Every structure is written in C-alpha cells, then in structure tokens.
Amino acid sequence: MPHNLSRREFLRDMGLFGVGAGVASIAPVSLFGEDWLDKAGLASRPPWVREVDKPTVEIDWDFIYRFDERNTVRRGWNKYVSQEEVDRLGAQQRTIGNQYALEGRPGYSIRDLALYSASGVGATQSFLGPDAQTPEDRGVPRWEGSPEDNAAMVRAALRSFGASTVGFVELDENTEKLIYAIDPDGKKVEFQDVDQPDETEDTRVIPRKARWVIVWTVQMSSEGMTRCPTPLGAATTSLAYARNRAIQGRLQSFLKGIGYMALGEAETNALGIAPAFGVMAGLGELSRLNRLVTPEYGPMVRVFKLVTDLPLAPTKPINAGIMNFCKACKTCAEYCPSGSLSFDSEPSYETRGGWNRGGVKTWYENSPTCRAYWAEVGTNCGICFSVCPFSVKDKALIHKMVKGIVGVTPIFDGALASLSRTTYLGGDADKPQKDTEEWWELDYAELGIDTTVGHKDA
C-alpha cells in the first residue's frame, strides 16, 4: 500500500482501478510509460498535456476590451442588486459565523473562525513593489540573458519563493486587453511611452516597453477546500492570497535587484484577469467554473500576474482535455448550492450580466447569486472547487491514469465524471465533503499542500 494512502482510500481507489483498468487497456500506451513517470517536472509535463497555438477556449479578440474591474461582483455588487440588499447581505456575512458558532454548527467553532481570520494575515502588496538594491546601487551592470534563460531564471526564483507553476505571456494588441482598464480601487491602468513606471492618486502607468507578463499559481490544500463552505475551507483560500502577497513582493524585489521593473497587483484581483492570463500562459484551461483548472492541481490554485520589461520566452496554451471534459461532467453545477453555474453541455458567447465582459466562449456564471450565498454561510464558499474531479489528490497511479485518459480519449468523459462523483463525493451539495472536526486531527503537511506534485527534483 502506498505510504500516503489510508486503508480506506486505498480500497476505494482499487475499486476505481477496477473500472479504470478496463478503460486503460484500450488507451494509448504512451500515457502510462516511462516518459510520464520519469519526467514529471515543470519542463516536461505528461504527454497528454499538449502545447497548442490557440487555447482550447474560443476567443473573439475583436470583441475583447479592457475591462473595468469595478464591474465584477467583487467590487460592483450594488450595480446588480440594490445597495440596501448589499448592505443587508454584507452585514449578514460578517455575523452569521458567530451565530452558527453559538448554535454549535459543525465547522463553525471558535477555533475554525479564528483560523479563518488568521489565515489572511500577511504582507502588504503594491503596484510598484518594495524598495530594493538595484545593480546601479551596487555599481555593477544589470543582468542580461536570453529570453529563454530569463524564463528559466524567473521560474527558479518563483518556485523558491513558494509559487507552484509558472508561465509567461507577451503583451500584444490582443493580450494587452487582458490588463484591466480600471483597477479595483478605481485607479486607471494606462500604457504610456515613458521610461519608468509611475503611480499617482488616480492612475497607474505601465511603460510600453514592459511587454511581458509573468503568471504563476499558488497551490491550495485539497484537504482544506473539501471542508467548504465552512471557515476551514475559506481559510485555505485566504492563506493562498496571504502567501502570494509575500511571493509577489519577493519577485518584485528580485527583478528590481537584477535591473528590471516589476509591476504587480496593488490588491486582490488587480492589474489583469487572472484566469485569462493563466490560460494564455499554458498553466491550465478554462472550465465550467469559468476559472482555471490545471493538469497538476485541478482548480486548487490561485492565479497571479506581474508585468515586467525583462524579456521572457512566452509559454504556449495547452490542451489536456480539461475543457472538453467539462462538457460532459457538470459536477460543479450539480453541487453549486446557489445554482450559479451553467448546466449547458456546450460553452457559449452569451453572458449572464454586466459582471461578464464577454468575447469568450465559455460557461458564464451568475455571480450575484453566488455572492449572495456567501452571506448565507459567512465565507467565500468554494464548493465548486472542492468537488471538481481534477481536485482529487494524485495519491495513486489510477488518478494519473484517469487524467491521461481524459487528455486523449473524450468518449469516456461522462463515465469517468460519474465514477468520480460516486467514489469521492460523500456529502450533500451544500455541505462539506469531509468532516470538519477530523481536519484538526490530520497529520497536516506544511501549508496543507504537496509540493512534490509535478516536479521531478522535489
């Protein structure tokens, strides 16, 4: 028995293996061969993760425009429901956890609430980043390397700072549209023909010579997220954002230290559209969640980005069969307690409201009903992340085999999605999939994550 599998999980996976083995017997041999098992690092993904010239999600670039982030429900909720309702639901979200704690509701004990509050504590973040000693300060030339060498260097630095996967997007007339026109705090984000970046009371200036976007993921704990929609699940999300504030600052300091600009997120969800940059950088595919799903971690990541003038070799979009799998799966929609996710088999250009920019053929979500549900549970929900079949930890070979089958043999997608629901999902749609009290007794890994996944030199 693998040392990191419990007896129950081992027996359960063997049951899945019995079904999967039959499917695997007619799948391409290369899925399970030496290339996959011996080359799991960042530079050599499994063969079913294929680089492609265009992302698997269809994009009408002529329709894409630079979005005002204040139109999202995160900042502009009162544009879609009355201000009175926003105030009422906001007050409820802030206090409902205390009420549930008094009622003895599972997952809402005082220690659960305290963990949620503590998980978001961390460093601050800014557009221009912290002060750093530059090559000019040291009296030495700045770093000069090829775009390929620079990309490898930045990836190595980010991995050491705590990022999971790293990709790069070059800004052109299309991808520049993924940078917000207006940031969450109301400041305009402008590209200008200037030598240095700047920030004023109402504007953030990106020099046009800064043509590269560094995109990275920060892994979240699947053990934590399977406790959604309680404070334990929400703490997992808060911790990822808190960790990234430190990661971003370190990356900004590093890039300044070698002589280049590093323009980051001024706050949560600032600068540009994170899932879009993740897709273009090849870190994953767009999904029924209308969020990024990665081959390595499923949706159990948060995505972040930074603009720089350091020349970087772009990474290409991928096709790992993920978006195609979403057409048949629909698990996230079935388990969404607010009914905010689409059940349509095919993606569409039709948006659901002003919180959707449009121009992308995807499954658009009903953000106001999602946000209203947060007020019911006092957290940020996250059930859709936790029930996704790609969220299952790669503890056994069968998990890797199923991902390989999905990547190249879509005719089995429906059956595998149904099998995953039967095998791994034990809770009701509006309840945690795992016991919240049990979480406090786990032999929890650092940060609740497995940093060896996808990296051969871990």
Q: How does this model look, in words?
A:
38% of the residues lie in helices and 10% in strands. The chain has helices spanning 7-24, 34-38, 73-76, 83-103, 110-119, 135-138, 147-161, 222-225, 231-257, 274-280, 322-329, 331-335, 367-377, 383-387, 397-408, 413-424, 436-439; strands at 50-51, 58-59, 166-170, 188-192, 198-199, 203-207, 212-219, 262-263, 285-286, 292-293, 301-308, 318-319, 360-361. The chain has one domain. It is globular. Residues 1-5 and 7-42 have low confidence and may be disordered. Helix 4 runs parallel beside helix 13. It has 458 residues and is α+β, with helices and mostly antiparallel strands. It has 17 helices and 13 strands. The strands form five sheets. It has a four-stranded antiparallel sheet with strand order 3-7-11-8, sandwiched between helices. Strands 4-6-5 form a three-stranded mixed sheet, with no helix packed on it. It has a two-stranded antiparallel sheet with strand order 1-12.
- The secondary-structure class comes to alpha+beta
Using the alpha-carbon principal axes, give the shape.
Answer: globular
In which range does the helix fraction lie?
Answer: 25-40%
Strand line-up of the largest beta sheet: 3-7-11-8
Rg (C-alpha, Å)? 22 Å
**Biggest pleated-sheet summary:** 4 strands, antiparallel
**Number of E strands:** 13
